[in-house]
Each structure stands twice: as C-alpha cells, then as structure tokens.
Amino acid sequence: MEKQIAVAMGVEKADLVLKGGNVINVYTGEVEVADIAISDGIIAGIGNYCGKTEVNVQGKYLSPGFIDGHLHIESTMLSPSNFAKAVLPWGTTTGICDPHEIANVCGEAGVDYMIKESKIVPFDAMFMAPSCVPATPYENNGATIDADGLDKLLDKCHGVGEFMNAPGVIYRDSDVMNKLKYAKKRGVVVDGHYPLAGEKELNAYIGAGITTDHECVDVKDACDKLRRGMYVLVREGSATRNLRDLFPIINSKTLRRLVFCTDDRQVHDLLTIGHINNNIKIAIEMGLSPVDAVTMATLNAAECYKLNDRGALAPGKIADIVVLDDLYKFNVLQVYKNGKLVAENGKALFDAQVLNCSEVRNTVHCAHIKAEDLALKLNSDIVRVMGIEPHNVTTKSLVKKVSVTNGEYDFKDGLSKICVVERHKNTGNIGIGLLDGYDIKNGAIAVSVAHDSHNIIVCGDNDRDMAIAVNEIKRVGGGMTAVHNGNIFDTLELPIAGLMCDKDIDYIATMTAKLNEYAYKVLSVNKQVEPFMTLSFMSLVVIPELKISDRGLFDYSSFNFVQIEVEK
Amino acid sequence: MEKQIAVAMGVEKADLVLKGGNVINVYTGEVEVADIAISDGIIAGIGNYCGKTEVNVQGKYLSPGFIDGHLHIESTMLSPSNFAKAVLPWGTTTGICDPHEIANVCGEAGVDYMIKESKIVPFDAMFMAPSCVPATPYENNGATIDADGLDKLLDKCHGVGEFMNAPGVIYRDSDVMNKLKYAKKRGVVVDGHYPLAGEKELNAYIGAGITTDHECVDVKDACDKLRRGMYVLVREGSATRNLRDLFPIINSKTLRRLVFCTDDRQVHDLLTIGHINNNIKIAIEMGLSPVDAVTMATLNAAECYKLNDRGALAPGKIADIVVLDDLYKFNVLQVYKNGKLVAENGKALFDAQVLNCSEVRNTVHCAHIKAEDLALKLNSDIVRVMGIEPHNVTTKSLVKKVSVTNGEYDFKDGLSKICVVERHKNTGNIGIGLLDGYDIKNGAIAVSVAHDSHNIIVCGDNDRDMAIAVNEIKRVGGGMTAVHNGNIFDTLELPIAGLMCDKDIDYIATMTAKLNEYAYKVLSVNKQVEPFMTLSFMSLVVIPELKISDRGLFDYSSFNFVQIEVEK
Fold first, then answer.
1. pLDDT in tens, A101-113
2. How many Å lie between the alpha carbon of B316 and the closest alpha carbon of chain A?
3. Three-state secondary structure along B340-371?
4. Average pLDDT, chain B
5. Are residues B204 and A4, on separate chains, in Cβ contact within 8 Å?
6. pLDDT tens digits for B218-236?
C-alpha cells in the first residue's frame, strides 16, 4: 500500500506508464486524455506520471479488461491455459467460469484441475461451483456434488454456477434448499438459468438468492428479470446468440444491470470473431455508445460478481488494460494483464501449460464394445424416433414404422442408430435409439462430449462401425472420431476428462474442420446438422422432445423414460 | 427460505400484501402497478398476491426505504432510539452512522452503546468504526482507537468511518496504513473525507481503498472524485448544504455512483423539513426525475455500502417500504420496516428506549472551576484573537491591541473570552483565548459538545459567570447552559457522553430554541452567530484559521500551537 501511495503521489516512479492515451471512464461515460501509472500490477494513478518504462499510447483508446460474465471453458475443448491464450488477445482478462462439464465427469477433482491450470496463465478465471452435478437423475455421470460437496467447493470457488434445477427451487427440494442456504450464508453470487420463467416462479427463484440469468430469449423475458432484480447476462455464444434480440432492453436506466457473456463458444468463432469484444462490437454496430458497451463488459460485470478490484481504470484497480485502435472499429491492439503486456496484434505473448493431472485423465471406463452389444431388439415395428431439428439442439418425437429383421432393427429404412454408452462407472448401460435427419451412410461418428453427463454418444448406419468408433473413443480416453467402412478416419483426442484437448486452438480448429468435412463429404451427414455438436446435445434430456441417456429414451413431455416401441 | 418460496409461488398466504400500489422500480426506472407480498419481513413476491392481511395502497406510490449514506447521530443530540423515532416517519429506514463523536469521548464503549440502543428500534443503523480517534494530536480527548482497536471494532461495525486524516494517508503514517490494511483485509467499505483533494493526492487516497466522499463542495471536486471511482455522497445537512451546488453532476452516466446523505442534521430541521426525503424533494424540484432521485436514496446507497439485502422492492429484499402520496409532492404517508408499519402521518408508532448505560454516563471529569482559573495572563497587549465568521465555522486569525490590568485581560474592550476546559481525564488543562464577533454581555454560555474531542467550551464576558457555566456542565454530566449575572438560566442536559440527551426530539427542540433565544435576547449574542453551535466548532483545529483546544491556541496556517501574545 505504501508503495502504491508513493507512486500515486509522484514520489516514486511507476513501473510502467501508459502515456497520453484516451482513457475510457466507465464511471462518468467520458473519455479523457491521461497517463496511467502502474505499480506492482495495480493502477496507482491517472493523470500526469513518469515511469521506469513508458509506452506512448497517444491516439489509442484504453479500456478496462473485458469480463465474460458466464462461460464454460470446456465447451471450447481448450484446456484452461490454452483457453486463456485464445481469449487474452481479444481483450478478455477475466471470466466467470462454470466448470459444470468437467465436474460431471470428475467431480471436485475436475474443478481443482481447472483452478490449478488457470493459475499458471495471466487470466483470471473465477470459478463457480457447479450446482447441478448430476444435471438430472435420469442418467449416469461421473460424480455427484450434493449440498455439502458444494459448500466444500465454495472454499475455493467464487460463487455458485448456473442453477439449472429451477423445479428444485420452486418445489423446495431439500438438497437444493441446502445448496442455496450455504450460498446465502457465504454471501456469494448464485448464477441462474431459467428461460421464460413465470411471474410467481421468478419471484420464488430470485427470492431464493439467484441473481443472474443468461438464458433470456426475448425482451419480455429479460425485462421481467431486470424488474425483479436480476442482472441479465446478454449472451452471444456460438450456438446461442441473443444480443440482437435483447438489444432493445438496453437503455440508460437498465444499463447498469446488463452484462455480456459468451456461455459456450467454439474454437472457430474464437479464432475469427473473438470473444467478449465481439459482443461489444455488435452492440456498437447496433447503435449503443461504445463507452456504454464497454461499461457492460467491465464495470457492470465487476459489480454483478462483486469484483471490487476491477472493472474500471482507476486507482487501486488491477491493471487489466485493453489498448484499442478506435472506439468504433474496436480492434484490440494490445492487452495488459496485471500491468504486463500479455497479448499484441492478436497473439498471446505467453505459453500455455497443460497440466498432466492424473485425476482428469483416463476417464473412459467401459468394456470393449462388440457390434452385437449395439443391436436394437424390437418387439414392434412401430417405434419412437428422435427427429433432428436443423440448426437446433432440440428434437421432435416422431413415430415411424421401421424395418425389422429377426427381431432387430436392420437399418434398411435409412434411419441412423444412436447409442449412449455409459463410460464413467462401467455399468454396461447402453441406451439405444433411432435418429431421423442425421443421414449418416457407411460409417459412424462418436464423441465423448455429451451433455450433461458426457457418456459416449455414437451414431451410425451399421453396428460394426459404431462399435469401432466407441472403442476408438475408449482407446484414446475420450475424443471425437469418424469411422468409414471399418476404418478409423481420424480422431481428435480429448484426453482431459474426455472433454478437452491438450493441444492449442489451431490444432483443434484444424481437426474439427477436418472431421466435420469428412462427416459431410464421406459419411454424407445432413448438411443442416453440425455432425459432432448436434450429437453432443442428443443426450441433454432437459430440453424437448425425445432424447436419450445411457438409461434409455427420455420423453420431455412426460419427463420420464419411454419404451422405444409404441404400444398399439 | 422454503416459506418465502411457498409464498412467492402462491402456495402459502403472505403475512401482508400491499395491494395495487404504484411500485417504484429502481432497476428499470419504471413505475408498475402491482401487489407486494411480504413474509417474515421479507418481500416474497411482486405481482398478484393474497395475504393474511391486505392493505389497499391503490393510487399511492411505493418506494424502497431511504438510506442515509453518511450521518452522525450525535449531531442531533438524540439518542439512537430517539433518532430512529425522528427519522422513520420521513422514510429513512437505514443509516450509515459514524459514531465518531461518542467514540472521542467513550471509545469502544461509546460505539457499543450506539449499536446496542439502535437494535431496540426498527431502524437499521449500520455503524462505521471511527477512524480518527483522537481526531488530531493537538487536543486531549477521552479515548484512543489505534489500528488494532479499529480492527477489533470491525468485528461489530459495517466498515470504517470517514477517513479525515488525509495527510496520514498521503504521507503514509504507519498507524493509518495499518488501519487501511485491516479494512482491505476484511473487504469493508472505508468512507472518505477529503474536500478539494489535488489530482495526485486523490489518486493516492482512493488507491489506498477509500471509496466514498461526502465533502464535495463544487462540481469540479465531485467530478474529480467520480472519475477516479469514488461514490459521491451528495450532502444536505443543517450546516452544510451541497445539493444545489452539486446538482449539475447528476446525469444518466453518473447517477449510479451518487448517493444522498445528511451528515449532520439538527433537530429543528428534522422536525420541519425531514431527512433524506428532503434531499429527494430538492432534487425533484431542481428537475431530477423522481425515480432517479429515489434510486440515489436507495439502490445506489445499497450498492455503495454493499447492502445486498435492500435498496429495491424486489423478491428477497427486506420489506422496508415508504408509502408516498405522489411522486412530486413526495409526502410520506406510511413507513414499513421489515414488513411492519412503524410510522404513519409523520408519527412513529413505536417508543424510544434510552438505555441507561453507565459507560457513557458521567463522562465529565474535571475539577470544580474557580473564576481565577480562567484568568488570561498576558505579558503583552498585542494578541491574537479568533475572529468569528458569520454563518461559518471557520475563523479569521486577527491581531488586536487589548485592555490589560495587572497583567490580566480585563474584558474592557468588548471581546469575549473563550476557554476549553479538558473534561475527560481531569488533566486541569484549560486553553484560554479571545473571540471577536460573538458579543456576549453579562454572562456566559457553555457546552460540552465541542468538536472533535468534546471538552467543555465556555464563552463569556466575565470569569465568574464562565466558571458557573462550566461547573453547571460538570454538575449535569454534560450539556448546554446559559448564565446571566451569576444565575443559571436553564440547562439542556446531555447526559449521554455529554453529547446526547435522553429525552425526545420535541424536548430538545424546545430547549435549544429557548436557550438560543435567551442567548440573543438577554446575553446579546451576535445574531449572525448560532450561539451554541458556533462555539462547538471553535475547537475544531483542522479548519482555518485560529482555533483553540484544551492545550491552547492553534494556528491552522502553521498547523501548530501559537502563543496568544504576538512577538514584537
């Protein structure tokens, strides 16, 4: 503290002074020309300063580092340190990260790994303790985090991750109540997840202490939540893009309660359009003042998540600073994290360091699969079929007459078979169903990213290739693979919990592009479908209409399992 | 939590529903017609509800309870429970209270008393641990709170009270540094007090963790502080009224960082114009939208002081609700605190309960004073004189030729004598000086409220009446008294630390009016001067130009003691 004061007073020289930039002031909405003096990674003063090192930033615009209000690192398939390397050049210096996916595979050890690797890199990942592990009782996952487990995680986490179990809140499930009581006792932020909540349900949910929501799908939904005191996180992810729809909610009264987030973002988008900078750019394009857009990405997020040490360029705040070319072009030239230059011209200036943490490796535990294990025995030819909806992760529940030989489904009618192979506890569970609209031919695709329990999902037009694909996923300890006529084309290995790769973003982008192209061109997968990502969501039972877990077909409308055969 | 949810869901009836009012929404700037359902003192839901008790508030406006961002209860001379009774009817339900005055008399025990008595009444006094006890090293007070003492107080206080010792911060005094480090470690709010700080000084002060200021005197001062990240508390006190001067700083960008406060408010104003409602009314009169004005008095203050449980009418917030007749007339009809009706039509519906706490009683410890103890011996007739500035608490440092007989000042030239009698530790210290512009005749006035050490100040035109007045203050254990030609006219007893009365606001208002009238009419005190309050500030050595403590005359410009005689 003494040194900071001495530097502020001009008695000691700052470590670094950014000279003469246009400093974006999120407190007053102004842009002021001033020097920023930095000492020990903290902003000591703004005004007229000398430093041991001085960098001329005249004509440039300086913004506080951007904060992503809600994201899942796992969705990028990047390890935490590679994730940091990917987002820092875009100006994101802090992320509120929910390690929900890895927790469903590895439990507390998964969260520990995420925290540990994040600490190596100059990026502040604030981890939220995942609240829904398992996500539902209708599937087998790798771990359970009950209320006491959550409380233990809160010793090392910043708050509680998205509370997807809204029914558990409004119907007062006892473990859910205990989780919320632990959070309240600690005074930590609890993130919400409750699209289109009803009036009374929303009162109940917010009254229980849940203060953010990133699932608003329209203006009414967002306004309802703002009125009742929630921070609304305006999401611009890869699959879910809400900013344009929600733009009308932004005004001078509501601004302070609005935050940007990405939630799930894929490597292709990270490489091309960026991260939170993209939310800001879109908002500016739509007519929001650049300073207001920056305020949403900085001060508002800091206030929402009680991060008093950041979110503004002001004395005492950590020196996370984004240097921009222009307020409207909004290109990120340089990024300082804790007063150090960590990215320049789109490139990180540090190395990722993927930890070889045994607790999150070798997480695929299932027996070798034979083709006959995947046989779909039917005692009727009128069956329920999952109907893919193009560009969406929901399905329609269809009823079709299918082709059956010797009491088994025989693939002759062109439907794809989809199986979920339990891979955590070697239960031998295999859920088997049929998929319409995927259209795979002469092969199979398998992936160990399968929301939210991350069992192995495989889809194909013959059991032999499907078994080969599952066994390949088992062999590499998780990943994405494509098989054609008995041959493995290629595999993106995701050795970290079967969710994340240990290589960098370029490798992942190249491999996913290659596998997707192969799926379309060689395996004839429907071009209206994302070959791997679509499969990853076929096991997400909490959205409509017909889904599949390792325990079988799940019908959303009755919210229970159903037999594949339709009773006559 | 379960019950709140059940009420929110409409499964259980609310304790109380305020039906159909115009609900002020500080999150969106809207006013919406809705019911407010309250359960166990908490807002369970807003919408359409039934309750065990229902109150029709159609046509009325409902605001969150007002929060005073900074105040000293002692300045009203009301005890905490009587203070609550006085402000609740005006809609103030929470106050950030700095018990700086009583701490200077009684130390930690004084703070304990304030906390204890406040808890009896339906008012949330959030006490800040006084940071400057004693206020300066140039006077004797009743207690010392060093860094460790402050840390101990923080176990029971909400944050750290106004950090008046700005030089101690910018020059890195070690005890000051330790105080700020303790506050930082606990993550509590530290209030500031730094009028017209320079650019570098402000960086240093804010960087040290001080986040509010209520001493802004003009637009530039306030803007400087807003830009560097401070919350600016816009004060409308009795002596210091800044709202009209600072009004231009309020705009849609800065609003969220602006809070209302009263700092020091006297009983007359409390009875007539009110409290924070008065700040709101003035702001509305000046053109601020009523909802914005309410937002300053509620949500902004809650955010500034990290009071997540209040500041808005929303589920999960405590049910502190002000019922208003109209957004522009802004008359308070009813006040609910924790869901209970506590004031109606200007009257509190509860009783004060003054604690008879021995630690804060009988705090006047000095010997019986004789007239000759107050003799001013002079070895020169050219002396320094404190020149009162009408309507101000500063003085001019004058040099005058005075009338001396037998080596003693003899009163023949019409100046008043002013003495500060140490009353905490019976040191026998008496500071003696001369006062120009007070003009008292044939008597004396004495008071034990004397900033910031609260010794006894007495002023008169003869030593005999002055001694009588001091001895009367000693006899009653602190108070305000007026003496005329050897007779005590009347005394307002302030038995609580010599600062606060144990009677209600009407009694204090009557007594102070009576004593002031007597001072003007019988003792001929200058009508440009507040007879008692002006004296109370003559011992405040940290403001210009010539002041007096129990240790002698103090010169602000040299910031040290001076002899009364001017060297020739």
1. 999 999 999 999 9
2. 4
3. EEEEECCEECCCCCCCCCHHHCCCCCCCCCCH
4. 97
5. yes
6. 999 999 999 999 999 999 9
Check residue B568 and give its pLDDT. Answer: 63
Q: Which residues of B touch A43 (CB under 8 A)?
A: 207
A-chain residue closest to B292, CA distance: A253
Q: For the segment A369-413, what is each residue's pLDDT rounded down to a tens digit?
A: 999 999 999 999 999 999 999 888 899 999 999 999 999 999 999
pLDDT tens figures, A221-263: 999 999 999 999 999 998 889 999 999 999 999 999 999 999 9
DSSP state of B145: B
Q: Which of B47, B181, B199 is nearest residue A200 as measured by Cβ atoms? A: B47
User: What number is the average pLDDT over the span B179-191?
Assistant: 98
Nearest to A254 among B6, B28, B47 (CB): B28
- In this complex, do A203 and B45 lie within 8 Å of one another by their Cβ atoms? yes
B104-117 pLDDT, tens digit each: 999 999 999 999 99
Q: Which residues of B touch A229 (CB under 8 A)?
A: 27, 312, 314-317
In single-letter form, the type of residue at position A440 comes to: I
Residue A369: closest CA among A499, A460, A437, A497:
A460
Q: What is the mean pLDDT of residues B312-320?
A: 98
pLDDT score of A322: 98
> What is the length of chain A?
568
For chain A, the distance separating the N- and C-terminal CA atoms, rounded to the nearest angstrom, is: 77
Report chain B residues whose CB lies below 8 A from the CB of A251. Answer: 29
Measured in degrees and rounded to the nearest 5, phi and psi for residue B558 equal -90, -5
User: Given this model, what pLDDT does residue A568 score?
Assistant: 63
Q: Which residues of chain A have pLDDT under 70?
A: 568
For residues B476 and B488, what is the distance between their CA atoms, to the nearest angstrom? 13
Report the relative pairing of strands A212-213 and A231-235 from DSSP bridges: parallel
Q: Which sign does the torsion angle of CA B542, B548, B551, B555 carry?
A: positive
B563-566, Cβ contacts within 8 angstroms, sequence gap of 24 or more: B563/B384, B564/B376, B564/B378, B564/B383, B564/B384, B564/B432, B564/B433, B564/B434, B565/B378, B565/B379, B565/B380, B565/B382, B565/B383, B565/B384, B566/B380, B566/B382, B566/B383, B566/B384, B566/B399
Q: Which two tokens mark B538?
A: 């003559």
Rounded Cα distance, B15 and A568, in Å: 53
Computed from CA positions of residues B436, B437, B440, B446, in that sequence, does the dihedral angle turn out positive or negative?
A: negative
Predicted TM-score (pTM) of the model is 0.96
- Tell me the shortest Cα–Cα distance from A6 to chain B, in angstroms: 8
Show the tokens assigned to B499: 């600062």
Chain B: residue whose CA lies nearest to A43: B207
Alpha helix ranges (H) inside A51-128: 80-87, 100-106, 108-118
Beta-carbon separation of B229 and A317 below 8 A: yes
Tell me chain B's radius of gyration from C-alpha atoms.
Answer: 25
- pLDDT, mean of residues B424-447: 97
Cβ(B105)–Cβ(B115) under 8 Å? no
